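hey
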């Protein structure tokens, strides 16, 4: 009886290994390198690093923004900006970046591979021509291009949300869900200096 049980367990383990090998092969067919599996696991471990450091080195600091805003009197639509609104823009920028970082850190714990763009609580008139709602990026793209982490400019309402149905996204069959990247490059993004007051 015990022997039969062990045999069954061994058989299950063998089947699992066979399935896993098959899956790995499926992922790496377009990579004719000699050690594709090691390459993939290497990327995976780097990707899991918190984006905090990279984001802060790519995005302007609080000081940079304060300095820039002190010389600005109107937003991108010509509406006057008060001193109070300038402070709000700085706070909103900082909390927006923190939200994005937390979303990705939490996603890494949960094994999220895809994120999509959403605009909350209102649409962003500046992002309109750059990033549309529902466009998705992979965790690896976020790692390689931290610039794509929102907010994308001052007053931006763009958010990055985790997507749990990764298989659907991979096939891009879900309505309105298209990749942000083309030919492995992100599209031109708004200049961080472009100001909108739409969410103040
Ligand atoms: Zn925006």
């Amino acid at each position: 009886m015990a022997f039969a049980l062990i045999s069954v367990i061994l058989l299950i383990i063998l089947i699992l290994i066979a399935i896993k090998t098959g899956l790995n092969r499926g992922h790496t067919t377009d990579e004719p390198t000699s050690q594709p599996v090691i390459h993939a696991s290497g990327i995976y471990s780097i990707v899991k690093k918190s984006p905090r450091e990279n984001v802060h080195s790519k995005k302007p600091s609080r000081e940079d923004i304060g300095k820039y805003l002190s010389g600005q009197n109107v937003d991108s639509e010509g509406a006057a900006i008060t001193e109070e609104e300038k402070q709000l823009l700085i706070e909103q920028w900082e909390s927006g970046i923190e939200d994005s970082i937390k979303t990705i850190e939490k996603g890494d714990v949960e094994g999220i591979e895809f994120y999509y763009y959403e605009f909350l609580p209102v649409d962003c008139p500046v992002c309109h021509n750059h990033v549309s709602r529902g466009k998705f990026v992979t965790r690896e793209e976020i790692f390689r291009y931290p610039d794509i982490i929102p907010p994308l400019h001052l007053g931006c309402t763009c958010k990055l949300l985790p997507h749990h149905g990764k298989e659907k996204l991979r096939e891009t069959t879900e309505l309105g869900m298209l990749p942000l990247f083309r030919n492995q490059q992100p599209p031109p993004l708004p200049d961080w200096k472009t100001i909108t007051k739409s969410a103040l």
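The chain has a mean pLDDT of 82. The helical segments are 2-27, 36-47, 52-58, 62-70, 83-110, 139-144, 166-171.
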